[in-house]
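Quick one before lunch.
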Amino acid sequence: MNFLLFLIQLLVICLPCISINVTELVYDTEGKELSSKHNYYILPAKHLSGGGLTAVPSGWLCLHFVHQERNTTVLGTPLRLTPLPWRRSTEQPIRLSSDIWIEFHDFESFCVMRLDWHLTDLSPRALSGRRQLLAAGNQDGGRSFGVFRIEKPGANMMGYKLMACAKKEVCKGLGLYASKDKTWLAASDEPLMVVFVRKTSY
Ligand SMILES: *[C@@H]1O[C@H](CO)[C@@H](O)[C@H](O)[C@H]1NC(C)=O
Ligand SMILES: *[C@@H]1O[C@H](CO)[C@@H](O)[C@H](O)[C@H]1NC(C)=O
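Model of the 2-acetamido-2-deoxy-beta-D-glucopyranose complex:
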């Protein structure tokens, strides 16, 4: 009997330890936790301010640039988020302010199926000015292992900020850069607020 009491006490003390700190998690547009085992579209948080993020070939072999679709009805290319350190095959939630990889997933190109995000100093000749564009995939088809984070600037603010945190430098926000005919993602002091739309399985 005493032992049973002891067990119950232990359970009461330890129940809070088991529960996940929900304030740290990232949620999709349906209110579900973001997970490393689902694909997502990244769209602007502001309604009707353009479509989703998509991979566009750069002309340099397997290197792609990340663009925002201008057509608000286009969801873009599905993405997969992977928490670091990387663990094979375990489903993990995506946490705020923690290191992740971001990659276009199930991507059909002549190069690779997955294009991982990283900032690049390469820039198409047509783009004037010097800015670090957001790239996906590499010229040689290999990986770049760019590190990113998802931040929530304020509880009352709609959506999340994406930060590029390469090589333990200070993180840089990711925002939009519009040229005449395309909208690019680039390192920016005015980060784009985004939401995550889960790609439904079929
Ligand atoms: C939950 O996480 C938030 C943000 O990291 C932190 O401020 C808070 O103290 C945590 N709460 C618990 C119970 O660990
Ligand atoms: C936007 O995309 C939809 C669906 O792909 C298409 O039907 C529509 O014509 C597009 N609108 C413009 C302005 O391109």
